[in-house]
Design goal:
Order of helices and strands: HHEHEEEHEHEEHHEEE
CATH superfamily: Vaccinia Virus protein VP39
Shape: globular
Radius of gyration: 18 Å
Strand order of the largest sheet: 3-2-1-4-5-10-6
Strand content: 15-25%
Number of helices: 7
Bound molecules: S-adenosylmethionine
Length: 253
């Protein structure tokens, strides 16, 4: 079993965690770039993309949403600004402070998107304040993340926590119970299924091992733990991990 850096005298900040884990996360995404396509497409399931939209993806990791849109957007001339809070991913995204000023024009974004990240944000209100500064009136905000109930949060905070040097402790929020800021008209909050797709269970295990930065000691238990806590099924000639997220769609009033 690996030693947790978080068990030592200093507690790691998330910036440190992704400094250490970002490279592995990025390699897994580079090796299986389409595995999470459904997670990205679900962001737009209620409000499809329009022509020429100006999107901000924050924090963007290594720019995976942008890569997805480049594959999917067809003729739409969409611009994606990628902002990231940790330099540990790929260098593709500009690194900014979560609660500081960002290199954007005020009220210039048609949408701000934050995927799989709010559980790393200690002060969501302050981050949302920033969203309010940079999204235009009538523009959209999408936040999607793991919900507190269920096997995915357990997988992250028990299994990933145990098998990573950094540990994993997320702040999972019940979006339905949050007090959202007045400027934000929350239009819909719902759980959306977004299975991660692979050709084989070997690929599925390799992806999860890298994405979550797991140690060697995790290998023998990873597939059975995912089966138990998340769910794995055969589908369309491949294998799917039953990932799901809570998606919040809102508009700046
Ligand atoms: C699981 S990754 C998600 C990245 C990307 N949106 C995706 O869907 O692949 C989690 C993100 O949280 C970021 N993060 C959140 N809060 C942070 C903080 N306070 N300091 C550094 N990074 C933070 C990480 O840098 C990383 O981009």
């Amino acid at each position: 079993m690996q030693m947790h850096l978080a068990d030592s005298s200093s507690t790691l900040e998330y910036g440190d965690i992704f400094l250490e884990r970002g490279r592995q996360y990025h390699s897994a995404m580079a090796r299986f770039p389409r595995a999470r396509d459904r997670e990205f497409s679900q962001l737009f399931s209620r409000f499809p993309l329009g022509e020429g939209e100006n999107i901000v993806d924050v924090p963007s990791g290594g720019g995976y949403l942008s890569d997805f849109l480049a594959r999917e957007k067809g003729h739409k001339s969409i611009r994606v600004t990628e902002l990231e809070f940790s330099p540990g991913f790929s260098g593709q995204s500009q690194v900014v402070e979560p609660y500081g000023a960002w290199p954007l024009r005020l009220e210039s974004a048609d949408r701000i998107i934050s995927l799989a990240s709010s559980h790393h944000i200690a002060d969501l209100d302050r981050l949302l304040n920033n969203f309010g500064v940079y999204v235009r009136p009538g523009g959209l905000v999408h936040i999607a993340d793991v919900s507190p109930d269920g096997g995915i949060a357990s997988f992250l905070d028990v299994f990933v926590d145990r098998h990573t040097t950094t540990g994993h402790r997320g702040i999972y929020r019940q979006f339905e119970r949050l007090e959202w800021p007045d400027w934000l008209d929350v239009i819909r909050i719902e759980t959306r299924s977004c299975p991660w797709r692979f050709d084989s269970s070997e690929q599925l295990v390799a992806f999860c091992h890298g994405l979550f930065g797991l140690g060697k000691d995790a290998w023998p238990h990873l597939e059975s733990t995912l089966e138990e806590l998340v769910g794995i099924r055969s589908a369309n000639g491949g294998v799917e991990l039953d990932w799901e997220l809570s998606y919040m769609d809102a508009m700046k009033v």
